[in-house]
Amino acid sequence: MRLLTALLALAFLSGTVLAQDVKIPEEKEWHYDLANLRNIPEVEPNNTCPGQPIMCADVVDANLATGTDVDWFQFEVTVPGTILTIGTDAGPAPDARDTKLYLFAADCTTQLAYNDDGGPGFYSLITYTAATAGLYNIKVTPYSTSYSGNYILFLTCSQPSPPPVNDTCAGAIELTCGQGVVAGDLTWANNDYSLVSPSCTGYTTAGRDVAYVMNLLAGDNVHLFYAGGYDEALYIVTNCADAQNTCLIGRDATVGSGETIDWVAPADGTYYVICDAFGTNVGNDFTMDYVITCGPPLGACCLPNYGPCEDLSETDCAAVGGAWHGDVLCANYECPTAPPVWACCLPDYTCQDLTEEECAAQGGSLYPDILCVSNPCPLPPVWACCLPDCSCVMLTEVDCIGQGGIWYADDDCADPTPCGMTPVAPDSWGEIKSVYR
Prior knowledge:
This protein is mostly beta strands. The chain contains six helices and 28 strands. The chain has five domains: 2-158, Sandwich (Jelly Rolls); 169-293, Jelly Rolls; 298-332, no CATH class; 342-374, no CATH class; 383-434, no CATH class.
């Protein structure tokens, strides 16, 4: 720590900016599972090549004492074609935080591979197929003089095997209706489907992967639980050739605790389940529990009394008195939450937009699917109106009464007029009314 503080102070005084690595923005915290490997300590001095001898399946507890320290390790490959996995990860605090990793041939000068940030955080990862048997050399350095501290170095060696039959969607294993558990292994699978962030899982999927297929009907329910002990990523796509853009749902919420998907098929079709991993070239044996519930097609069911929407079969919807919409699920359908209003023609020949119940309470006639703006109501009838001067005019009842007249429904002003003869010198309108027929 004192050395690092001194370096920072020196950089500040000299105006020099120390080199810093750039972490992938979407990367999350994760580490390798190295529980089954053999732990050994670093043996100094190992600053030059050839360095400390190690073997396949070793995990070395090592230290970069200063920002300029270099650690060398040497190992032997006995079988040509052996696949080497070499990586660094965080050690006990204070950890080195950022490493660079090199692989050299036996001559210590021919560089075969290099990596900076392929592992967790700023740590490194190399996957390399050794074409020949013989000695190989590993070199570990800090990213820059800004970094020092503890780290672990691991080496695994494996013989190549063919990828699993469901390495790609072309060989996807079918999951059928019902429940069960499938056991798989990503060890020899390829990284065929590599999502980039932003993705449906929320992260990248740089690990190895395999595929399963489901032939579903709209409304079929799918439950999946995928667990492998590494940083699992699980997602469902409709087109493996464009997994990035056809992913319908994905999960990468935990690190090594398994991922769960609960999902309802939105339409009839073929869907692919991809069991993947977050870390670069990560993946080993796993299990996936599945429950696929198939049955009569489900559709949006609007419950009575303007209740909520539930995805039900037609039979179940009818049993609860709901309105069924079999061509769509509730996620894509909005049930009404209040009764609709339509044009209601009232007894006084006016129009109001009312609910069916409100219209009936006022003695009106409802015109479903029409509003008053369309003028659906009939005009009030025009009949004979006897005015105070004994003249007869064809008016509506309202207009007649408004002019002080007497309205005669179903009658008109033609002879014989309903208004009768005009009396001589009437004393009042009341007397005039008395001589009408």
